Amino acid sequence: MLLIRQLPTMVRNVAAIASMTLAAALLNACGGDSVQQASRYSIGGTVNGLLGKGLVLQDNGVDNLTVPASGVFTFPTPLSNGSSYAVTVATQPSNPTQECVITAGTGSVSGDNVTNVLVTCATEGFAVGGTVNGLSGSGLVLQDNGGSDLPITSDGAFTFTNTVGSSLTYKVTIKTQPSNPTQTCSVANGSGTIGNSNVLSVAVNCVNQTYFVGGNVSGLAGTGLVLQDNGGDDLAISASGPFTFATAVNNGSAYAVTVKTQPSNLSQTCTVANGSGTINSAAISNVSVTCTTNAYSITATVVDATANPGGAVLQNNGAGNLNVTGTGSFTFAQQVASGQAYKVTVLTQPNLNPAQYCVPLNGTGTVAGSNVTVTVSCSNVGKYLFVANTYDASNGDVSGFTINASTGGLTAATGSPFAADGNPAGVALDPTGQYLYVANLTTADITEFTVGAGAVLTFVANYDTSVFGTTNAKTFSVAVDPLGGFAFAGSGNSLANGVVDAFSVTAGALTEVSPTTSGNNPLALALDPSGKFVFATNKYDNDMRVFSIGNTGALTSVSTQPYATGNNPVGVAVDPAAAYVYVANNGDGTVSAFGYDTGTGALNELTSQGSPYVVGSGATSGPTGATVDPTGRFLYVTNYTDGTVQAFSIASLTGKLTAVGSPVTTGAGPSDVKVDPSGHFAYVANFLSNTLSIYTIDASTGALTAAGSVPAGNASAALAID
């Protein structure tokens, strides 16, 4: 290729040399001494439109000419007549970039200068474009340099149709903003000067026009109100007044304000008005949230295991008499607003015979966020009371009394007292009230009686409980399980042995099952309400054993080790409403409180609740007997040395004891206390004064009020009430 391009030049050079040789020969032939040179002609023309710098023209591939501006140009090297010329662009101009095109650039010299070569330069055009982001509306129109309208319909790359020449400026702007939804688009990298390449870095970013949604809350008194907009954007409201959601809503989009969480404490219902619509180029401020306090019903559920408590009249907050026609649920007509107190009381007790006494078990409180159900327990007032007189006559006996249903007063049964065996120390009734069992201290046996009308006892049989022979054997206590299928006796001897003997019960008759080793002198026994466990206190071991009751009545110790109590535990009581056990510690003037596992019987002393609790005057008060009322709300403990009985309230959720007032005076040496089945009256057996003290019980506080006393037998030790 190089050889082909150089061939014309070579031909011209050869021709020139031949011509020169011929001329020289002619001169020599003529004998002249002067040389006549051939004519030479310039090559040139005109450059039009040149703006850039660096344009270089070339003739015949060797003769370079730098052209600084438009106008006439001439190559520096002339050519001889007949020589060929070929004008080309060796270097195109830049800054701005241009493209120069040659017209009439080739030919042969023909006896004159060449002046008609035309070089025309034009500035090169480059594309302007970029990318659109975030476009969701319609109608966006872009412009470049105030024109070249370009409609944009979606996100992505764009390029204006018209190009812009090198070195010229460009400026991309928004002619029309999008609508439906309304958006605001802005331009980045939108202006500058064209160089020598396309500009594709313009960024058009579109964002929706947004407006806030809000309004006003009125009537808010509770806590925890949470509003939502469009199923999200939670907004917690703490008080009445204006509100605004944190997240704005796109223009043209829907909003929907709802209540996610209604207020509690007070429980309220909040409703929304003007809560939905479409944003139309303005903020929303007219959403109205109105809260009203909820009211709830108060229902009394009347339970009664013995009779139908017709005739009772209940009240709530001292008004709204509610007639009770039997067991079941009864609802007061007047509801109570959340946050307000309720107090269900018995205005009129049932008009039945035998007399009944109804007690609201959870009758007071504050309405929260739901309907309230109060349990009203109705039970017959106790009919009969029996007391074991340890030293009455020669061997001791049992006194029987009838109970006045209105006053709690006692009347001795015909034929009372009734002879038992040797020195009665404990007494228990079966659940039906048909049989009475007496633990005889010195004869180490149990006497069975049938219970007749008017608390008259009829001897049936004595049952041996001793496994220690006849020397120093003693039976201290007796208990019957809640279903009446088994009876248990606590026995021991002077050799520090002790057992709990088990018996099956058939039509009142006892059949020994087996004795189980306990601690030293199990003076007190108690059974849990389900009939699954026996609790036995061991006076001289300062502890308590727990036994599970098998299908045959046989006992199995719950723990390999007994549970420590205070000093000389002589009384034990089980809460019938919850899994708590209370032990009277005669030696240190305290009561130990335990929770027990209803599945296993395992004990846990309630030390975190303050156990043990001081009773009476303290260390020398001499606690002996203990009982929990039928509702499980109150514990009563007799203080043998002080001559008092102490009332405690029981916290239903923790078992914690709280003293109710000061100890109440009894007779001398109070040894046992029992509450009648209705929870209306309490009775104390006074061992040293040989009397029975009678008390009425405040149904709300558990406080005792003395209601008199009656004579009993000598050394009244233990009580049982039907």
Short structural summary:
By secondary structure, the chain is mostly beta strands.
SSE inventory with pairings:
Blueprint lengths: L1 H29 L9 E2 L1 E6 L6 E5 L3 E5 L3 E4 L4 E2 L3 E8 L6 E6 L2 E3 L5 E10 L1 E2 L1 E6 L6 E5 L2 E6 L3 E4 L4 E2 L3 E8 L6 E6 L2 E3 L5 E10 L1 E2 L1 E6 L6 E5 L2 E6 L3 E4 L4 E2 L3 E8 L6 E6 L2 E3 L5 E10 L1 E2 L1 E7 L8 E4 L2 E5 L4 E4 L4 E2 L3 E8 L7 E5 L3 E3 L5 E9 L3 E6 L7 E7 L6 E3 L5 E2 L4 E6 L5 E6 L4 E7 L5 E8 L9 E7 L5 E7 L5 E9 L2 E9 L4 E6 L5 E6 L4 E7 L5 E3 L5 E2 L4 E6 L5 E6 L4 E7 L6 E3 L7 E2 L8 E6 L5 E6 L4 E7 L6 E3 L4 E2 L4 E6 L5 E6 L4 E7 L6 E8 L4 E6 L1
Parallel strand pairs: 2-10, 12-20, 22-30, 32-40
Antiparallel strand pairs: 1-6, 2-5, 3-4, 3-7, 7-9, 8-10, 11-16, 12-15, 13-14, 13-17, 17-19, 18-20, 21-26, 22-25, 23-24, 23-27, 27-29, 28-30, 31-36, 32-35, 33-34, 33-37, 37-39, 38-40, 41-42, 41-72, 42-43, 42-44, 45-46, 46-47, 47-48, 49-50, 50-51, 51-52, 53-54, 54-55, 55-56, 55-57, 58-59, 59-60, ...
How would you sum up this structure, described in words?
This protein has one helix and 72 strands. The protein is mainly beta. It has five domains: 41-123, Immunoglobulin-like (Sandwich); 125-208; 210-293; 296-380, Immunoglobulin-like (Sandwich); 384-619 and 714-721, YVTN repeat-like/Quinoprotein amine dehydrogenase (Methylamine Dehydrogenase, Chain H, 7 Propeller), CATH 2.130.10. The strands form 19 sheets. Strands 41, 42, 43, 44 and 72 form a five-stranded antiparallel β-sheet that branches. The N and C termini lie far apart (136 Å). 44% of the residues are buried. The model is unreliable at 1-36 (pLDDT under 50).
